[in-house]
Specification:
The structure is a single chain. The chain has 564 residues and is of the alpha+beta class. It has three domains: 4-144, Histidine kinase-like ATPase, C-terminal domain (Heat Shock Protein 90, 2-Layer Sandwich), CATH 3.30.565.10; 161-245, Alpha-Beta Complex (Outer Surface Protein A, domain 3); 265-443, no CATH class. 53% of the residues lie in helices and 14% in strands. The protein has a six-stranded antiparallel beta sheet, covered by helices on one side. The chain has a three-stranded antiparallel beta sheet with strand order 8-9-10. Strand 8 and strand 9 (175-180) form a beta hairpin. Helix 1 (18-33) runs antiparallel to helix 2 and helix 13 (389-419) packs antiparallel against helix 14 (423-443). The protein starts with a strand and ends in a 7-residue tail after the last helix.
Amino acid sequence: MNNTEMRDTYLIINPELSNVRKATEFVKQWAVRSGLADKILLRFLFAVSELIEAIVLFSIENSLREKINIEVEPWEGWIKVNVKFSAKVPIEPYFEHKESKSDKFPGHEIAPEVFWHRVVVEWVDKAEWTEIGGWKRVSFVQYARPSGSPGELYFLGLVPIQRKGVNIKIVGEDVGIVTIEGVRNAFRMTKEMMFILNAVDGKRNVREIYRLYVEKFGIVHPKVVGGMIEELIKRGILLPGYRITAKGSTLTNTKQNKFLQKLLRFQYSIPHPDSFVSFVHRYLGWLWSPFVVVVAFVLIFSSFHILVFNFRAVESISGKAYLLFSRAGGLIGLVSLLLLNVHIIFHELSHAVVCKRFGGRIHALGILFYYGFICAFADTTDSWAFPSRWKRIMVSFAGPLSDLTVSCIYGWAHIFFTRQNLDIYAGVCGLMSILLFYFSLVNMIPFFETDGYYILSDMLNIPNLRKKSWNYLKQFLFSIVLNKDRPKISWKEKFSYLIFGSVSLLCVGAILLPPILVVFGLKQSPNDFVWFFSCFFVVIIALKISKIAFEWYHKARLTQIKLK
């Protein structure tokens, strides 16, 4: 074949106008088999034809003879078309390469992964642009609409519906709080999410909401808006309006998956949590008064010679506690475990009482399943509405402060009981002192979702610091490797994102390195506490990866059997 070469789902054509129709017919065959019909099919084929015709015309105009590769990925219910062509073809992801360009953004450059605004919004569900080496690749994705239903949450045809009983509280230009009647939790919303939530009227689809979003905030990829809508649906604030109907069995239909989802989302809150915290604050609120906080700081600094500057004493305490633990047949360990759980409740209660002290409302207080562990929690979402960031910091710091204070009390009690030769009591107090001391240190590491992270986020006054840092670091590295423009942000944000993102990578590496070195025999086992906390974080990271994999698998199973 001189002009075209077809291999099942793969077509190679020369840049000639006569081949545009052949390529369109080739894609049409697979699109029909994938379930596309009527207007959906016509719009998708129009987008594919426009793209291939543009590549051919630019190739002819510039005397380029490189072949155009068209690969079809047909699935039941949706199809993906990858068009690969020479990087010499002067087509870039700018508006000026589209005849019906947007009047509001003439000549506006946007990220390589999103291009031709009208094409993405009007004709296809998803579009991606990549350039590697001497090749450019454009990918179009289109989903069938059986009975007007979309096939995925990101679909621009989705018509989201606001759940009944949703209450929106605006607390500033950038922050809002959403509560749902009958649901104890409250949710913090960014100004972008608040805009989307207000734009949902049960009539607008995601395509129309996306247009409004672009007019308000400027050009973004449609999947950004889709992702925020998906997050609102996950939280139960929005309902999808349309749901996918799968012909075959999906993961969501299995009893095992329902059990796993319930387990991963397990959460129990006591009835009337705000009333309970108000009761505690009324009679025990003095424990979190400014005077007691000052006393706590004095106690902590006076105990530094035990817990910080004299680390050998710490190892001695832990060693004696371990020895007594083995001799007492686990009695010390069981008592310490009971006391530790009591203190975890006290830790969360500290957050709640301080939030109540500043006028906030407690929406939930109880236990949940977190990274494989049963943990206590307190929903102090109202603290995000405090105009003073120092009040928000104090709410976050109340927990770690209680850990350090109680740790110091246990440390002094250990010394007292040791001098009185009361080994059992000394062992329990020593073990609790060490556990709470390390627990407070770990809880102040700001590179995970800890109290330290929220404290740092409020100090810098940058919400979603971790997510923004990772995104900026990724874009920063891509700008170096691919010589792309960097996002235009303030120097404060740039510095914060780079430092936080870089140190996060180093922190994760430092946590993962000791277990890896020991497993491969490159290093002897470190001391018990370093080994314990390293393994603890490895388990957390492994569970996080497993959760992401589970969500990906669940999403993948919503598509049907591949046809090719």
